[in-house]
Amino acid sequence: MRRDNKLMARFRDRCGAAAKGLRQMAWVAAVWSMATATLCPAYGVEEKERRGPATVVDRPPTGEHNDHYVGNRAPLRPDALLKLPVGSIRPRGWLRKQLRLQADGFHGHLGEISGFLRKEGNSWLDPQGRGDHGWEESPYWLKGYLNCAYALGDEKMIAEAKVWIEGALGSRKPDGWFGPDKGRKGIESDVAGRDDLWPNMIVLCCLQDYHSATGDKRVIELMTRYFKYLHGVPEDKYLLGWWPKMRGGDNLYSIYWLYNRTGDKWLLELAEKNHRRTARWDEDIIYDWHNVNISQCFGEGATWWLQSHDPKDLQSAYRSWEKVRDSYGQVPGGMFGGDEGCRKGYDDPRQAIESCGIVEKMRSDETLIAITGDLLWADGCEDAAYNMLPAALTADFTGVRYLTAPNQVVSDRQNHNPGINNVGAKFDMNPWSHRCCQHNCGQGWPYFAEHLWYATPDNGLAAVFYNDCTVTAKVADGKTVTIDQTTHYPFDEKVTLTIQAGAAAKFPLYLRVPGWCERPAVAINGKPVTVEAEPRQFIVITRQWDNGDKLELTLPTKVRFRVWEKNHHSVSVDRGPLTYSLKIGENYVRFGGSDRWPATEIYPTTPWNYGLILDGEKPEDSRVKVHQRDWPADDMPWTHTGTPLQLEMQARTIPQWTLDRYGLCAVLQDSPVKSDEKEETIMLIPMGAARLRISSFPVIVVGEVAHEWSKP
Questions:
Q1: Three-class SS string for 147-189?
Q2: Share of the chain above pLDDT 90, in %
Q3: In the chain, how long is the greatest CA-to-CA distance?
Q4: For burial by CB atoms within 10 Å, which of 128, 231, 575, 684 has the most?
Q5: How buried is 477 (Cβ within 10 angstroms: 0-12 exposed, 13-18 middle, 19+ buried)?
Q6: pLDDT band of 484, cuts 50, 70, 90
Q7: Using CA atoms, how far apart are residues 323 and 328, in angstroms rounded to an integer?
Q8: What is the mean pLDDT of residues 160-173?
C-alpha cells in the first residue's frame, strides 16, 4: 500500500498538479480581473501590451460607447461586448450544415410529431389565450425554430415562426398580460391559482429576437404593457412557483433589454423586485441542484451586477460555476454530472446531463461573455458546444437523447435508475419523447451561430467563436463592412478573414485567443504581425481596412492530457478545444417511431473497457499519432466516418471493468490500473462525433506497481 501511495503521488504530481494549479489560477485571475474592471472601466485598455501594430487586451474598453448598436443605458454598467442583430451573421460550413439538418430534421418538423405543438386547441395561438394545451413546450420549440430560420434565411420557416409570434402578439389583454389564460392560474405547475411567469419568460426571448430581426414596434408595446402589469403585482404574489423563482434571471435580462430601448425608469424598480424574488443564486450556496436550473440560472448575480455595481454579485457567477464543476464536473465536456439533479457521491463520468442543460449552459456563457468580456466563458461555451451537444443528437437530427454523459457505452431505452437520477427511458434517441429536451434542444446551434461575432464598445468587431461565416455590421463612422471568415475550426488551427468594404474603414478588429492556445500568430496580406498574446486575451488590430484585405490567424494546437484528480486520476485527451473519446462501434436498433422519424437504441459492437498506456515519467511523451483526413464533402465532421481528425494511442483492456447491475459502465477506480492484457492500438475521435464513448480513461503505467480493478 505504501508503494502504491508513492506511485499515485508521483503520477499525480507529474500529470495533474500543474493542470490543477493553472485551473485554480484561471478562476482567481478571472474574478480579480473583473473586480478590478468594476473600479476602473478602462482597465482592459490600461493593461494592454503593445507589440508593433497589434494590441493585446484582456477585454474591450467599457469606457466607450458603440454608436450603432443598442447597449446598456446608465445607470446600468456598460457592455463589454454587444450582441449583433439577428441575421447579421450567416454561418457556412459544418455549422450551417447542422442548422440545415436541424431544420430538415425532427426539430424543424416537430409540429408533425409533438402533440404539444398541435395548433388546434393551442392556447398560445388563441387571442383569448384559451385552449387545452400550451405551457413551456411551444415557446421552447419556437426559441430554436425562429432563430434557425433567420440564420438560414429560410422564408418558409420564417413564415411558420411568424404564426406563433403573431399568436403571442395577438394575445395581449387590457391589463397587460399576454399568453395562455391558464398561465394566470398556474394549471401546468405548482403556482396554484397565481400568475405563472415562467413560459412567458421564454416567449419574451423569442419576441426580442424577432424584434432584432424585424424592428417590429409591437414587441416594445407588448413588453412595456406586460412589465407595467408585473410592476403592479404585489411582491408577495410575484414570481410564485418553483420554475419562475428559479429562473427569474431570464426575466431580469428581458427587463434590462426593454429598459435599454425605452429608458423607462420604473423598469429599474421592477428589476429590483425581480431580483429580490428570484432564488438566491448570488450567494455562497447552490440554491438548487437541478441540472437545468444550474445551467440556466447560475449567472443571475452577474446580470444583476449591471444595476447593483457590487463586485460580489458579479463574482457569484464565477463562484457558483466553479463550485458546480469542482463538486460534480471533474469530467471532460465542460458540463457536470447532474442527471436530473446532482447527488452527493454521484460524480463519475458516467453521470449525465440533460440536453436542456447543455444548451442552457451555452446560452448562459454567451450572455456572460457580453456582460463581462471575459473569455473564460467563451472557452466554456465551446467545450459544451463541441464535446457534448453533437453527441446528444443523432448525426442526421432524427432523434435526441434526454441524458448524455462523457462515459456512456450504451444508449438504450432501459431504466437505469438509481444509477441515473431519473426513472424511465432517458438514454434512447427518440424524436417522440423527452418532452423538455425534445423542444428546447433546438436553441443550441442557432444561438451559437448568432454569437460568433460581437460588436465592441469602440465601434469595432470581435471574432469570439471561429467558424466559416460572413458577418455584416456597422463600424467606425457608420460604414458597413462584411468580413468573410474561412476556417475548419475547431478541427483546424487556421482562420482567414477577408474584409469586404465599399470604402476604406478604420476600426478595431478583436481576435479571441482561446484558453488552450499558446503563441498565436497573425499575418495581414501575407506579412507577419508581431504579437505576444496570452491565452484568454484579445488580439486587437486597429487600422484602416481596405477592400480585399486578408488577415490570417494561426492558433497552434497540440495534444494535451488532463488528469482528473478527484475522479480517480482518470485522464482525458485534448487537442485544441476538442476532447477525444474512444471510437466504439455503434449499432443502431429501431424500436419504435416511424420510418421517417425512428426511435432508436445504440449498442456497442467493439470493446470499450480500455485504459490508456501512458508514460509515468512524462505523460506528454506517450505515443500519440495524429491522423488528419480530408475535410468531409458533406460538411459532416461530427461522425465516425466524417471526422477529419483521429488520434492513435496504445491501450489495454481492463476485463473487470464491465456494465454494472444498473446497465451502466461501472464507476472508475483509482489509476494507475493493473492490466496483463495485450497492448493494442486504439483510435480516438472527437467527443462530439461519438454517441457511445469513453472520454475519461483509466491509466495503465507499464512496469509499475498498480491497482487491481475490482469487479462491480
A1: HHHHHHCCHHHHHHHHHHHHHHHCCCCCCCCCCCHHHHCCCCC
A2: 87
A3: 78
A4: 684
A5: exposed
A6: very high
A7: 8
A8: 97
